[in-house]
Structures are given as C-alpha cells and as structure tokens.
Amino acid sequence: MNNSQNLPLVMLPGFLCDPRLWADVQRDLRIEGAVHLIDFKHCKNLQDMVGQLEKLETPRFHLVGFSMGGYIAKIFATKFPDRVASLTLVAVNVGELSEREQTSRMKLAGMLANVQYKGMNEKEALRFIHSSSADNPHVVQTIVEMSRAYTSEMYIAQMNATLHRQDLSAELAQLAFPVLIVAGNDDHVVRLPTLQRLHELVSRSKMLILENCGHYVPLEKPNELAKAINDFVNSRGA
Questions:
Q1: Secondary-structure class of domain 9-96+166-234 per CATH
Q2: CA 203 – CA 172 distance, rounded (Å)
Q3: Would residue 51 be called left, alpha or beta, if left means φ above 0 and alpha means ψ between -120 and 50 degrees?
Q4: Of 48, 33, 40, residue with least CA distance to 66
Q5: Other C-beta atoms within 10 Å of 123: how many?
C-alpha cells in the first residue's frame, strides 16, 4: 500500500484568488489525508508566501498549486524537496515574465497606489475562461467575488512578490517526487506548448489536458481536476 496516501494535501490559490477557488474541487476529493487551503491575501512578499508552507506542522505533504500558487509551489518544492510527496501544477506559468509583462505590471501597480482596487467585473472575468464557462454564473461570480476581496495594497504586494520569477524547470527535473501537470486547452494566460515542454523536461511527470477549458481550471473543470488529483495522490507513483 502506498504509505503517502494518508499525508495531507496542501492547495495554493492563484493571483487575486483565495480558498473559495477550491470549494468545488474539495467536494470531490477522495483522499485519506487532511486538506489545507492556503490564503496568500495578507502576505506582504514572496518570503511570506513561502513561509505559509514552511510553518505547516506536518513534515511532508502533497502540494497542489494553481497559476501563481503553482509558482510558489515550485519554489517550495525545489527548496524543500524532502517535504513534498507529490507536486500538482495547475495552469502554471513556466519561466520568467517577459520584460514587457514586468513593465506593464509595474505600471499598473503605480496606478493602484493612488486609487482603491475594486476587483474584476464580469466582463473582465470572461477574458480568462472558456466560452462554455461564460454561461455558468457560479464560475464568473466566484472569480469576481474573490478579486473584490482584495485591496490595492494586497494586489500590489501579491504582484510584486512574483514579478521577478525564476525558471525552476531544470531544478524540478532533478528531483525525485512525482509531478502532475494540468492544463486547459484554451488557456490564454498559460499557453499549452509551454506546459508541454515542461512535461517533456520533467521525465517523471504526468500531463492532463482538459478540453473546453480556460485558465480557471479549478472552477471550470472541478470534477475532472478532483479526479486527476485523487488518481495521482492515491497511485503507487505518488
């Protein structure tokens, strides 16, 4: 029997998200260990974010990260590989942000320093999801409501914390824990070919591509994602 099946599962949200992101996924999880939902909303910097995981009392756990949370997961996993039983990366950017993207984000941060962030509206949320999810008010409203829980200060802190990203692909390829990579086939934030290249580089990884799915995989395809996590965590490979 796989002795890692009863280990906790730790789930990390993405930018402008919080534990509500995982509610639908969590309902379909069939794992023996406890589930910990991390919230980065009040973290001031990258060290605070990684520190949320460092201070967990359990010495070893399965780690799941969505988007920005996946980057935090990669940092922790490469820094503390002995604490990671398995790593699941959901719609995660690979590599560094381009200079253009960094400049754009810094410009936005400058604007938000003078006004109060009020969250996304429904039209903005639709840019990140597949057209088949656009008619699902639960998906759209959850994205909007999570973003509206953020202040300008929270937005800027979270953005600055992950602005200068490192490409940790080579480091991941050298480590022993199994990796699951989950992608939406119509994700306009994280392009599928970049995740396919990561899958090729990390020889021990598995990859799942979800059809008719945009960037917000945990909201758009919660049942499929939960099944993938169940199978992965409960498999002999994890």
A1: alpha beta
A2: 10
A3: alpha
A4: 40
A5: 9
Q: What's this model's pTM, rounded to 2 decimal places?
A: 0.93
Place of tokens 């990140």: 128
Angle of the 46-54 helix axis to the 68-79 helix axis, nearest 10: 60
Q: Distance between terminal CA atoms of the chain? A: 11
Q: Which residues of the chain have pLDDT under 70?
A: 1-3, 95-98, 102, 236-238
Six-digit token pair at 204?
Answer: 């021990």
Q: Is the distance from CB of 95 to CB of 41 less than 8 angstroms?
A: no
φ, ψ dihedrals at 120, nearest 5°: -80, 155
Q: Which two structure tokens, joined as six digits, stand for 74?
A: 């990669």
Query: Which residues contact residue 40 at a Cβ distance below 8 angstroms, ignoring those fewer than 6 apart?
Result: 12, 13, 48, 49, 52, 68, 69, 72, 158
Instruction: Classify 16 in phi/psi space as left (phi over 0), alpha (psi -120 to 50) or beta.
Output: left
The pLDDT of residue 1 is 40
Tokens 């824990």: give the residue.
Answer: 177
Q: In the chain, what are the domain boundaries?
A: 9-96+166-234
DSSP labels, 19-85: GGGGHHHHHT---SS-EEE---TT--SHHHHHHHHHT-SSS-EEEEEETHHHHHHHHHHHH-GGGEE
